[in-house]
UniProtKB/TrEMBL annotation:
Subunit structure: Interacts with GyrB.
Gene Ontology terms: biological process: regulation of DNA-templated transcription
Protein's gene: yacG
UniProt protein name: DNA gyrase inhibitor YacG
Protein species of origin: Pikeienuella piscinae
Signal sequence segment: none
Keyword Cytoplasm: no
């Protein structure tokens, strides 16, 4: 059985990968407030191609 990423308790099938609704809600709150972020490699080459804009 795996561990809840929030509190470390064993996971419950209903709330997987969390142990409870509380831990699932904590995780959701962290995403919504920006505590978690997906890293992005921002370079100057990321500007849209003019050909694709047409």
């Amino acid at each position: 059985m795996s561990e809840c990423p929030i509190c470390g308790a064993p996971t419950e099938t209903r709330w997987r990968p969390f142990c409870s609704k509380r831990c699932a809600d904590i995780d959701l709150g962290r995403w919504l407030t920006g505590a978690y972020a997906v890293p992005v490699d921002e370079t100057e080459d990321d500007e849209p191609d003019r050909e694709r804009e047409r």
